[in-house]
Amino acid sequence: MLMTMDCEHIVDKRLVRRAFDRAAASYDQAAVLQRDVCDRMLARLDSVKYVPEVILDAGSGTGYGTRKLLMRYPAARILALDIATAMHAQAHPGILRQGQSLAQGGNRGQISYVGGDAEKMPLKYSCVELVWSNLMLQWCNDLNPAFAEAFRVLRNGGLFMFSTFGPDTLKELRQAFRGADEYRHVNRFTEIHDIRDKLARAGFTVAVMDREYITICYDDVIGVMRDLKAIGAHNVSQGRRRGLMGKTAWQKAMNCYEMLRARGKLPATFEVIYGYARKPDEKRATGSRVACETMPGMLAEVF
């Protein structure tokens, strides 16, 4: 997840894609928090008097947010961008069964499905009016290129709305594993003030940030780990343990987690950070409005 750029904490994007491809079938059943945060983001749109014609859902997953956005903006065109092909297949069942490869392109009505990385999006400049990203940014190595890309694809005056996890996320799990061995078992997350600074560096204005803490209670540690696996939330940093954890170290970590049990349940805390930012509405030259499509020559996957 989000981290400093020393080599120990670099996210392996191949592992990210593989994890979400494998988790696609089980994702919706376990992604209760992701849907809840998406709904909370949508509620924040109630105070925004803005009706975008073209929307980018960056990190669209199985399509819950995409469908909700289309319900809110029924006349909009939506680009659903995700790094994992299997997530798109879940979002629109039958596409791959029809024999159409991703490279062949095309779109399905108002939604176009695009395979790509948020840090290097295969989209033209100034082609969308709303960039929406729900709990995806934590999988980026560096927010600077991710924010720069969001700024690049937005039209002047466009809106960037996102949610991501803060550093207190899974603090109980991190605490439990801290004394077990020398490896990192929980990915790193970015502080809210650093996110604000990076937004400004990318050129965004009117940046509004807030956060909340959501605690999910489990019967046992296995339940925590099972849900994280079901949504593809593996530790993918280079400082992770490469093999299985030893029985003694695992039991030590589990005993530490058990000490946090309250009212018969084990807590798993998530610090959720919400962001809202604008691209300055500068005067544009006539004819600067371009079609929203993939950039020629880029290896894009669209279906």
How much helical structure, as a percent, in the residues? 25-40%
Number of helical regions:
9
Secondary structure: number of strands = 8
Q: Which percent range describes the beta-strand content?
A: 15-25%
CATH architecture: 3-Layer(aba) Sandwich
Structural category: alpha/beta
The name of the CATH topology is Rossmann fold
Q: What's the rounded overall pLDDT mean?
A: 81
Q: What's the alpha carbon Rg, rounded to whole Å?
A: 20 Å
Write the H/E string, N to C: HHEHEHEEHEHHEHHEE
CATH superfamily: Vaccinia Virus protein VP39
Broad CATH class: Alpha Beta
Strand order of the largest sheet: 6-7-5-4-1-2-3-8
> What spatial form do the alpha-carbon principal axes imply?
globular
**Main sheet overview:** 8 strands, mixed
**Low-confidence blocks of residues:** 1-8, 95-107, 235-243, 284-303
Tally the structural domains. 1
Explained architecture:
- The protein has 303 residues and is an alpha/beta fold.
- It has a single domain, classed as Rossmann fold (3-Layer(aba) Sandwich).
- The chain has nine helices and eight strands.
- Strands 6-7-5-4-1-2-3-8 form an eight-stranded mixed sheet, sandwiched between helices.
- Helix 1 (13-30) runs parallel beside helix 4 (85-91), helix 1 packs across helix 8 and helix 5 (143-153) packs across helix 7.
- The radius of gyration is 20 Å and the shape is globular.
- The two termini are 27 Å apart.
- The model is unreliable at 1-8, 95-107, 235-243 and 284-303 (pLDDT under 50).
